[in-house]
Specification:
- Helices cover about 35% and strands about 20% of the residues.
- It is α/β, with parallel strands linked by helices and about 525 residues long.
- Among the domains are: about 180 residues, 3-Layer(aba) Sandwich (Alpha-D-Glucose-1,6-Bisphosphate, Chain A, domain 3); about 100 residues, TATA-Binding Protein (2-Layer Sandwich).
- The protein has a six-stranded mixed beta sheet with strand order 1-5-4-2-3-6, with helices on both faces. It has a six-stranded antiparallel beta sheet with strand order 16-21-20-19-18-17.
- It is globular and about 60 Å long.
- The chain starts with 17 loop residues before the first helix and ends with a helix.
- Its cofactor is Mg(2+).
- GO terms for molecular function: magnesium ion binding; phosphoglucomutase activity; phosphopentomutase activity.
- Pfam families: PGM_PMM_I (PF02878), PGM_PMM_II (PF02879), PGM_PMM_III (PF02880), PGM_PMM_IV (PF00408).
Length: about 525
């Protein structure tokens, strides 16, 4: 059930005490004996808050030193591209990381200001395509998390999120360093690098700006106070677009936001509550878009439908791209996470393409995307990327700017909004009803849920249909949870890799009422498993 003020503007009482958050970053020393204060890499790096000892100076120093140690063991000798977003903790964490990198004589390339995650990914790919010493990157961001939070993630030379085989040893080493304090530090320094110029110039290799500009469609781009804030205006100017940056305010308290479903401030561009201001003004634009704080996610708003369900947009994006990218490899697959809609499966099959289904986490897409084996890959949480016009990887991390611009290209090229295109897909492939439910879960409960086994599910039916499958793996990887399917529905349960919650995803091809029955039964099944 949504909070009473969900979707309403934040007021003063909702805002963080900025000085308290910043002071706690250096004053609170995490205990190496407290597992709740340990370094833990979830689906996208280490996240936490300074206020409870889960994201503090000691964490960032240890993580950065551990990344340096990994670089040495992996023979990575090129520069490190470093970016940050607009969260309050991002700037002090950035300074700490630079000090440790300087103490280890690592060359750092960074820009003065905010840098979107996809711009860092693209810069790494461009650098490494030239040959020579390979580069990698650090990005200081907790993504869409609340203003109290901080985050840091490592992207190795393939440009995308590091695999578990890399982050596991990095986290283990970082926790050793938390205890020992054996960290080298120097004076923070970075060589200036213009991420924005490189990224915006090269966007023409992946987006048809000519068709957008010639159409004259009106575009509203809302950075939600994040790292894309100084990119959107330049994109509009560079390519002659009728584009308005909806809100150019940068405020680490994010006081301009509307409250999310739980009453918190969260820069989640896939949430209708967090995007309420843009949705309310949707008729001003032919297409409106939002990005989260590090711009790796996208939200698509149309005049006729408001904020699109991320699954719906992924489906229409795939359908459009497979008819408008003639130079893509004919055998390239389409990737989705196993908690994404079955509409995507139907669209991919209609184009005679192979579907690659993976666990939640963009890291599972990186290698096939970098090699061109996968042409498009997306997550239900509104993160995706795809190949450029020539069939090469443009960014191997989620790219919220690219997908937002694709929505404008689709509107310009077809004369229809992405939501209208989705309605046409439903006519061809049938309806489905999708939802996600979040519930609190502590560390112990999340550990149990991540190790669920099909034998722990005693139920034989799901919402009136016989259960046909119970799986704990996808594409050869453990999904960190469980997916249960029947003829007309499925649900998946997994712990969040970034928050103290577990998530239940569900979809029904019958009706909204059937979907709610699936969700209710799924929670009973999961709670029974957690209870042992």
């Amino acid at each position: 059930m949504a909070h009473l003020r969900a979707g309403q503007p934040a007021n003063e009482s909702d805002l963080i005490n900025l000085q308290e958050v910043l002071d706690a970053y250096s004053s609170i020393i995490p205990s190496s004996d407290n597992p709740d204060q340990a370094v833990i890499f979830g689906t996208s790096g280490h996240r936490g808050t300074s206020l409870n000892g889960t994201f503090n100076e000691a964490h960032i120093a240890a993580i950065t030193q551990a990344v340096v140690d990994y670089r040495v063991s992996a023979g990575i000798t090129g520069p490190m591209y470093v970016g940050k977003d607009s969260h309050a903790l991002s700037d002090p964490a950035y300074q700490t990381a630079l000090e440790v990198l300087a103490g280890n004589n690592v060359e750092v390339l960074a820009e003065d200001g905010l840098t979107p995650t996809p711009a860092v990914s693209h810069a790494i790919l461009v650098h490494n395509a030239r040959g020579g010493d390979q580069a990698d990157g650090l990005i200081i961001t907790p993504s869409h998390n609340p203003p109290t939070d901080g985050g840091i993630k490592y992207n190795p030379p393939h440009g995308g999120p590091a695999e578990s085989e890399i982050t596991g040893p990095i986290a283990a080493r970082a926790n050793e360093l938390l205890a020992s304090g054996e960290i080298k530090r120097g004076e923070a320094a970075a060589k200036p690098f213009d991420f924005r110029e490189l990224y915006i110039t090269d966007l023409a290799e992946v987006i048809d700006f000519k068709v957008i500009a010639e159409s004259g469609i009106s575009i509203g781009a809302d950075p939600l106070g994040g790292a894309s804030v100084h990119y959107w205006g330049e994109i509009g100017r560079r390519y002659g677009l009728n584009l308005e940056v909806v809100n150019e305010t940068v405020d680490p308290r994010f006081g301009f936001m509307t409250l999310d479903k739980d009453g918190k401030i969260r820069m989640d561009c896939s949430s209708a509550h967090a995007m309420a201001s843009l949705v309310a003004n949707r008729e001003k634009y032919d297409i409106a878009t939002g990005n989260d704080a590090d711009a790796d996610r996208h939200g698509i708003v149309t005049p006729d439908a408001g904020l699109m369900n991320p699954n719906h947009f992924l489906a229409v994006a795939i359908d459009y791209l497979l008819t408008h990218r003639g130079n893509w490899p004919a055998d390239a697959e389409i990737g989705k996470t196993l908690v994404s809609s079955i509409l995507i499966d139907k669209v991919v099959a209609s184009h005679n393409r192979t579907l690659r289904e993976v666990p939640v986490g963009f890291k599972y897409f990186v290698e096939p995307l970098a090699s061109g084996k996968v042409a498009f890959c997306g997550e239900e949480s509104a993160g995706a990327s795809f190949l450029d016009f020539s069939g090469k990887a443009f960014s191997t991390d989620k790219d919220g700017l690219m997908l937002a611009l694709l929505a404008s290209e689709m509107r310009a090229a077809t004369g229809k909004s992405p939501s209208q295109l989705h309605a046409e897909l439903v006519e061809r492939h049938g309806s489905s009803f999708y939802d996600r439910f979040d519930a609190p879960a502590n560390r112990e409960q999340k550990a149990v849920l991540s190790k669920l086994d099909p034998s722990m599910v005693a139920a034989t039916e799901l919402a009136g249909d016989a259960i046909t499958a119970k799986v704990t793996e996808a594409a050869g990887f453990a999904i960190g949870g469980l997916k249960v399917s029947s003829e007309h529905a499925w649900f998946a349960a997994r712990p969040s890799g970034t928050e103290d919650i577990y998530k239940i995803y569900a979809e029904s091809t019958k009706s909204p009422e059937h979907l709610q029955q699936v969700l209710a039964e799924a929670r009973v099944i999961v709670d029974a498993a957690l209870a042992g």
